[in-house]
From TrEMBL, chains A, B:
This is Fumarylacetoacetate hydrolase family protein. The lineage of its organism: Bacteria, Pseudomonadati, Pseudomonadota, Alphaproteobacteria, Sphingomonadales. InterPro entries: FAA_hydro_N, Fumarylacetoacetase-like_C, Fumarylacetoacetase_C_sf. The keyword Hydrolase applies. GO terms for molecular function: hydrolase activity. Pfam families: FAA_hydro_N_2, FAA_hydrolase. PANTHER family: BLL6422 PROTEIN (PTHR43211:SF1), FUMARYLACETOACETATE HYDROLASE (PTHR43211).
Amino acid sequence: MKLATLANGRPDGRLVLVSPDGERYAGAEGIAPTLQDALERWDEVEPALRALAAELAAGGGTPLAGEALEAPLPRAWQWLDGSAFPNHGVLMQMAYNSPPIETDLPLMYQGMSHCFLAPTADVPVPDEAHGIDFEGEFGVITAAVPMGTSAEEAAGLIRLVVQINDWSLRTLAGPEMRTGFGWVQAKPACSVAPFAVTPDALGEGWSRGRVCLPLEVQWNEAPFGRARGDVMAVSFPELVAHAARTRALPAGTIIGSGTVANVEYRDVGSTCIAERRAIEMIEHGAPVTGFMRFGDRVRMEARGADGATVFGAIDQQVVKG
Amino acid sequence: MKLATLANGRPDGRLVLVSPDGERYAGAEGIAPTLQDALERWDEVEPALRALAAELAAGGGTPLAGEALEAPLPRAWQWLDGSAFPNHGVLMQMAYNSPPIETDLPLMYQGMSHCFLAPTADVPVPDEAHGIDFEGEFGVITAAVPMGTSAEEAAGLIRLVVQINDWSLRTLAGPEMRTGFGWVQAKPACSVAPFAVTPDALGEGWSRGRVCLPLEVQWNEAPFGRARGDVMAVSFPELVAHAARTRALPAGTIIGSGTVANVEYRDVGSTCIAERRAIEMIEHGAPVTGFMRFGDRVRMEARGADGATVFGAIDQQVVKG
């Protein structure tokens, strides 16, 4: 089952279901007006949503042709982002000669959640000197999760899987990280691909609480990376349990994987510029690649074994904000 | 003008106005159903709110007698907490022999905002071993703040002033801070005193973008601290501008001062246990005071020059969650 949100002038948009191939949609507002509402009443609304999804799979619905797709949750009560691909951290530490992060717990920060940008929205940044970078990630959207939920229990509370661009301003990020307080200025609004997908609909693309798909990234239409999501050192259920250790999570909490990164980076590239620069620093002593400029575009998309889009594409440009 | 939220079984409660002495209230749901709604339509609703506040000040309204007061915003789209009292940081660094935080920018982290505890609600914590601590703070609630707003402009976008207990789990806080990612597990839901007050109603208690009032803290009914809020190194308008450098803030954003702390800590005490422990470590080589136990109570209240309560009291106990 694929869910999406169409713009309707209201903050949460309106809920629609999308056909498995992402080509057609059907309004679901008769079942739940918004995705947030559906998540809060999931057990009650899921049968009707599944029935509508079956009609779509059988060929029903209206062609998606230029409808304004929002982020599945244009705003959420909570966004917690992990850093679960160890090779990303290893490269950054080698490049910047910084000590390894000492922790035996998953890494996680809380980011802004009152606005998630639409997948084709312009991305406003005040200054190119901030070091504008994309970060390709996968994420999950949870049911309500009680405090103290185990990873085993959390696996059953993952309602949807999403694909995220966690926009980062690198010049601001290092100084903020060194305060220990995490990131505020360095992490403006994320963008989210248009389709939120139930884990069962991912088939072999969802295993061991991980998204087993490559995330293709293009920067100004040139291939930049194609890293796989299956090598997370910490699974999504473990990230959810970590987040819920001392707090209850509300339905609609979004939890991210951190930048998708593989040890075979020479073959698969990277899903953020900072990591490519780190590799250049390690291999050549200095970074060669610059960060994004106003007018630059980034495209991110995951495709299944059949070549079909899974979450739809993020495809957007950076503009002066 | 004092605003408050009464419990009505819904997530955002219902908006009421409270008399200057905090003794009487009048329902304001005819003007705006919730405080969040009022903040989103402030210019439109302020005249009617002010007219109702004048009736209350003239003796109207109903006695507040046991009504269930929620946090003014039981949930908010964003909570950003500063650390604007330098003596708090100085003491913590001396006690833990940690290097000074290298930054010339205000310190700030993003915390959970989907739940703010009512001022008398029990505070659930899973384990006493987490180092349960209170942190007495002041905070502001903003209008919508455009990205790039200056501190001068931000001063006019502060709608309300609040008093906050930023609950902290100290055993978890140090390791999370050392990751650079900020706090997730160490910062469960904050509590907020019942009355949100417009800056003009604070009189001499609001000057230079700071709350010029002492914050009285009692732990299990024994005086613990009475630190003044006027010595913030960074004002609230400066904190708002810092938060808005690379993002627009939605109406209803809550921005905190960090732990209220004074250089005269020998006279005025502290507003968190960690700071008292730091002083003990500096003066005696080891901490003497333990953290909170289940069943312990904390009370926090700010009083004006006339001795009257300003924000109402936070008065609550810690329970096993």
